[in-house]
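User: Structure please.
Assistant: Input sequence and predicted structure:
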Amino acid sequence: MTYHKDIVIIGAGQAGLSTSYHLTQLGREHLVLEQADTSFPSWHKRWDSFSLVLPNWTVQLPGSPVASSQADGFFTKAELLEHLADFTDNFEPPVRYGVRVLALEKNERPHRFLLHTNQGSLEADNVVVATGTYQEPRLPAFSADLSPDIFQLHTDEYLNHEQLPSGAVLVVGSGQSGCQIAEELYQSGRKVYLSVSSANRIPRVYRGRDSVWWLGKMHFFDQTVDQLKTSQERFAANPLFSGKNGGHDINLHQFYRDGVILLGRMQGARGSHIYLETNLHDNLEKSDLFVSQVQQGIDAFIAKQALEAPPPPSDHPLQDA
């Protein structure tokens, strides 16, 4: 049976439920469809020791401000989920869980859109697609070529180091999740190998402020998709740093000094053998160069705005691992 709604929102994450909040304030009838069994499903799937990478003041949900005492900190997983739950408790959004939208098409009837779901069809005059990015785990094709004797786990399923069998661990990918998990693993006493990609890093703190604070003042986050040089930039890896234990740098040179074996980008596997690109040092140099460029950009902004700030460090050695 097909029924009708004025407004349908697909996705019960931050974007979808923020839209729902504003529609509720305006008295507009609407419905939110979420394929998972909970709101904010991507945050529920984070590992046990997860902390936000961005400061809490960047969590800007309508009608639910972060307490000033917490603004410069970094929510743990439990703290973030509590904050999100408080937000939805404020207005009780009309969410139907377990509904996966399979297709969306224009409708020949008076209502403009037809949504096909796993629970039937739905007509709507207006549809807001708020499904987000990176919602499905991406496994490289070569994972199927590894021996079944080798235990494999995607970051989407990782909770803590105790899930893994004893022995050394290879972490494939040095983005934010890969590096934070690699750090947790080697600090727990595991021997860790890290296959390094081209993800860049930035300093957690520079010239007395969190780098995210500086980037905000420089209107970096005000850029829209149409301002990107290419559409692919939207999918570039986020820069490396951590919010765990109050926030700190993620520096692969330090990983190396702490005993992590750094490897080039993994390009294939067969049985118990892996095949690596010879681009480790190129990737490290590119990341170091990016740090320097970010620092120079902040320096230029401070000078142009005549802002008071501690002087930059006397040197920024680029160290080869």
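The chain is about 25% helix and 20% strand.
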